């Protein structure tokens, strides 16, 4: 017989029955959630650099080992095992490093690297990041789960919290991961407390509501008001192209819609135009880029490209705060006050350790590679080990269809140069330029190739690098600024809207050569329109002396044309710089140029509100639903909703007797709400007869009689049971106000 509300419970529903095992199960689940939160960071790292399946084996092995020895060894022994796991893992990591890196592992270097990790150095920037991830995983996983098996939940949460905290400090644990881990730890501690003091599982409702509210609120506001932390949910503004590229520091995340800033950033005096490079990124994560390796102090002239080069002198003057050193590739010498405080990245770019102020200037000498088309075609593929290791990497999540499309586009070419040109031309012709795009939820190259019709420079450059690497061509993404507006014979004004991303491909005996797959015509049209709008509206900071006389920026140079002596450098200009992709610029519905329109921002730019990525929507939505369910249960709404449905529809039993009993209990609950509850010792027949004096339908008495025969007599027929159920259903439908009061 089905359990139903009856007089024994006086209409009360207690929901889940408390048990001794329930809080412990919840505590174990909380520890597992916390463990998975920091393991997920390591899984992300190994997905990028390789070794994800091996890491899963290591983690599962650690969990099994902890479960097996949980009842066999003491805490001191478990701590010793953890230390051995960490020491062994670190030894494996050191042995896996290149010999040149092992020689640098002095005590001072180890200390400085540890401090760097604790102050924001991403794990993905480490050499051998995948080996490091597998080295550090087993220790905390083993100890945390061992303590949980031993019912030392607080200790388990402390170990897991320290592991997760490390990845928060390195910047690799995102807000969702951190919040889920904190929630898991809090649930584990709360459940352990309930278990210790023999409290009920129902008391977890309040904790669940608080945690859900914390996560949902954190998903809609910044972590610290006014701080740089980005909220999970989108704001009504969009980042500038400059902010998403040049200000990305050591990690570049590909965002959705962006806007153009017309503010002047710096001026350049140079005898040759060029792209003013600021950074290069070697490690592709699928959703962005990471610049690996440490930066070393600038100590004098740097090595130039391996082949022939042209010397280019540049005098750069900051027109505001400037935390970069823009320079033509490849910079080899830096002069000026910032030289004593500058540093050089592993990728060969120079950057200051302190921002330049308005009016500060420096002089930089660059050796721009000289080459001919035939020289690049003849270039071999015997790349140095460092180039192959860093610049052929693709994340494990790279789809087969990306590799197949790369083979379709460039697989027929027999040299790296023609492969690069094929991919460059393919992207220029197949995709349109637009600043208004949704942020992809998966791999950038895959999304841009197969799901997006348009994008801007970051999408073009990322996709080209991924396709070339799929064809075993070393390539990297580079950020900086295009030439800017030429205001004199050798002088250029560079604005925020000139920020750009492009591609460099490595060739033996030449070095890094620039390719730009972004259609230059539509991009320059959008930039010119944005600048014209800013000038028309009287916006300040968009011009310097003499720059107002030139209406359009200088066409961007490309590296492909040959010079008069048969060699080409990165300052050449060709007809390709003015080519317009089919369809031109993608414009919003109002016909305005992307970045210029009715939706304005602080600097006058505008773009539609970016869509929330589906993955984050799912996480935040599920958390909100869990919180709402917990709140409804705490308030009794779930019980009341069940009662209302049970009262109105009843349901069916296995026998006529079951249905007759169910019909009476529905009736009694209805009468309890409308009149009064049945008194202790009062029989159902006496109860119904007492209410007949106030006008109770005589058919209701017949329901009570059927109940008595079903419970205490010789039973009822199917017809009698159905009649009783129909009578109660009619009374419920005629008593709408009564049903309404169920939710009081």
UniProtKB/TrEMBL annotation:
Domain of life: Archaea
Boundaries of every Transglutaminase-like domain copy: 449-519
Transmembrane regions listed in the UniProt entry: 25-46, 55-73, 79-98, 132-148, 153-170, 176-194, 206-228
Keywords assigned by UniProt, alphabetized: Membrane, Transmembrane, Transmembrane helix
Region of interest called Disordered, as start-end residue ranges on this chain: 518-611
Organism encoding this protein: Halogeometricum luteum
InterPro entries linked to this entry: Bact_TGase-like, Papain-like_cys_pep_sf, TgpA-like_C, TgpA_N, Transglutaminase-like
One Pfam family named in its UniProt record: Transglut_core
Compositional bias per record (Basic and acidic residues), positions renumbered to this chain: 524-533
Name used for this protein in its record: TransglutaminaseTgpA domain-containing protein
